[in-house]
Design a protein that fits this description.
alpha/beta, about 220 residues, 4-stranded parallel sheet, 8 helices
Length: about 220
């Protein structure tokens, strides 16, 4: 595991990489590599969410659960896949909601969301790695402790962040967030299994921009080119 983080996150997470759970996690990932198991994303992409969205720049958090486990998909940003690959079903539904939320929104032909991350949208998965073709295979190994710490630090040291929590797993993280300092938007997951039960029509993206505008902050351009 290659640990290269921007200074803003290193300052916040100082000492985290020496804690027992992280030492155990590093050993687990090394064991996976030595046994010939393919792990996604590649090591240099594991912390992409943090490196594209420095701590002081976070305006919105969109929380996912696991990286995609198909070849070449995951690159460290929740719900995002690299260009040249099919847009996953949940992201297709996110695009559909954006098109409903913003008249004139053009649904993209790819699923690469780096543009959002670079504007202050922290696309954070609760678990940052996964074994190829085995969804959930790296859950319970320590990543959730690390990403819970990220959410807690944002809650405690920042104000006015919009947290989009889709589905029960993400909504359970609301316990880590100070609702008096931040904005928590909840909806069903955009998965095809649940999108029609309330994700469609939630208007989280325009609501986030309204919140940012009221705070005098630059809105997110959700259009992916």
């Amino acid at each position: 595991m290659s640990v290269t983080l921007t200074k803003s996150w290193l300052d916040v997470l100082e000492g985290e990489f020496e804690k027992g759970y992280m030492v155990s996690l590093k050993a687990f990932l090394l064991e996976e590599k030595q046994s010939g198991v393919t792990v996604y994303p590649k090591g240099s992409d594991i912390f992409n969410a943090l490196n594209h969205t420095p701590f002081d720049n976070v305006k919105v958090v969109i929380l996912g659960q696991d990286p995609y486990h198909g070849q070449g998909q995951a690159h460290g940003l929740s719900f995002s896949v690299q260009k040249g690959l099919a847009v996953p079903p949940s992201l297709r539904n996110i695009y559909k909601e954006l098109a409903e939320d913003f008249p004139g929104y053009i649904i993209p032909h790819h699923g690469e969301l780096t543009k959002w991350a670079d504007q202050g949208v922290l696309l954070l998965n609760a678990t940052l790695t996964v074994r190829a073709q085995q969804a959930g295979s790296h859950q319970g190994k320590g990543w959730e402790i690390f990403t819970d710490r990220i959410i807690t630090e944002l809650s405690e040291k920042r104000e006015g962040i919009v947290f989009m929590l889709w589905g029960k797993y993400a909504q359970n993280k609301s316990a880590l967030i100070d609702g008096n300092k931040h904005f928590i938007l909840t909806a069903p997951h955009p998965s095809p299994f649940s999108a029609y039960t309330g994700f469609f029509g939630c208007k989280h993206f325009s609501k986030a921009n309204e919140i940012l505008e009221k705070a005098g902050r630059k809105q997110i351009d959700w259009q992916i080119d």
